[in-house]
Amino acid sequence: MAAPRVGSDFSCFEHDWHLSRAFGAGEFVVLSGVTGCRPDYSVADDPETQFREAFQFLGEALKIAKLDVRDIVEMTSYHVELRKHLKAFTSVKDEFITAPYPAWSCIGTPS
Questions:
Q1: What's the pTM?
Q2: Residue 70 falls inside a structural domain
Q3: Structural domain containing residue 101
């Protein structure tokens, strides 16, 4: 099966999980967790591809709110096998997130 293109319809998450991708709250927009999970619920086998798709999907969600990654003030990332993947994640993150950098909490989780 071919991977869906970035920017594909994510309405399945709202329908299946009863959540909003992004929700306006006054001057802020709060986003639901963004992962490398595609609209068809598939996930790339390669962690770097997962990370890159997650940031691309984040950009799509921000675009809906007429924002982009420069508008992010705080982000929290959760990682299975943090030590194994942190260098790759940081490298991909730096392709998308530039100065001035948002506050960032990076949390390792058990598998």
A1: 0.80
A2: yes
A3: 11-109
